[in-house]
Each structure stands twice: as structure tokens, then as C-alpha cells.
Amino acid sequence: MLAPQSHEKLLTVIDLPQPTGADLWPPEDDRPAARLHKPLRALVGAAELILAALAVWGVFACWKAGVVPVRITYGDTTLESQRYFGGPLAGAIGLGTLAAILVVDAIRQFLLAVRTRRRKPKEPRN
Asked: What is the per-residue DSSP string for 23-36?
């Protein structure tokens, strides 16, 4: 048999005055805004493209190591097949993913390197 459930009584909430004033907010940050336009980012993008090219080369090397042809000859019959090794194939997939990420980030770095700066608003002519 279940015990009867008792209900809690809520105590009266006391409405305290809330603090107000300028001391509640943190002071404004006086530092200049971060610049995204940095021409040296082009060098970072170029380095990432070189690393991506090396990763693609590694993809082909790993894939070639992961697929091995097997040829069995018995009398006049020749059976050809392929044997797949998971480790090198997984490495090839991982390097391909890394190369794709590096290319996307290199594009981002190049765009940030060549992005134009904001123009100052023109003063009205009298």
C-alpha cells in the first residue's frame, strides 16, 4: 500500500530591492578590435596547401600498400584476386580527410589575407 503524499507549503517570498547603478556592469573594453586582415595569412595558406599535397601523396602510398594482388596458379588454371589490409586503407581515408580539411582552411586563410579593409565613412560635403 502506498503512503499518502504530503504537499510542501511554500514559504512567502520576500521581495528584496534589486541593486542598480553603473557598478553592476563590467567596464567597457578599450582594446582595439582584432584585425582579421593579415597578409601573412597567405603564407599559412600556402603551407597548408603543401601539407595537403603531401597528405594526398600519402593517400596513394597507403592505398597501394593496403591492396595486394594475389595470384594462385595450379596447373593450367590461374586464380587472381586481391587482399585488402584494413590498417593502410584506414590510414589512406584519414589522410584524405586531413587533406580536405587543410584545403578548406587554406582557402579560408587566403580569403582572410586578401580581404579588403573597411572604408572610413565619407564626410558630408558642405
From this structure: GGSPPPP-SPPPP-
* Range 59-89 burial, b when 16+ CB lie within 10 A, else e: beebbeebeeeeeeeeeeeeeeeeeeeeebe
pLDDT tens-digit readout, 59-81: 999 999 999 999 999 989 999 99
The candidate with the shortest Cα–Cα distance to 61, out of 84, 95, 86, is 95
| Predicted pLDDT at 31 | 73
pLDDT over 70 (residue 124):
no
In angstroms, the Cα distances linking 76 to 65, 72, 73, 79, 82 are 29, 11, 7, 10, 20
DSSP, residue by residue, the chain: -PPPPPPPPPPPPP-PPPP-SGGGSPPPP-SPPPP---TTHHHHHHHHHHHHHHHHHHHHHHHHHHEEEEEEEETTEEEEEEEE-HHHHHHHHHHHHHHHHHHHHHHHHHHHHHPPPPPPPPPPP-
Q: At a CB cut-off of 8 Å and minimum separation 6, what does 94 contact?
A: none
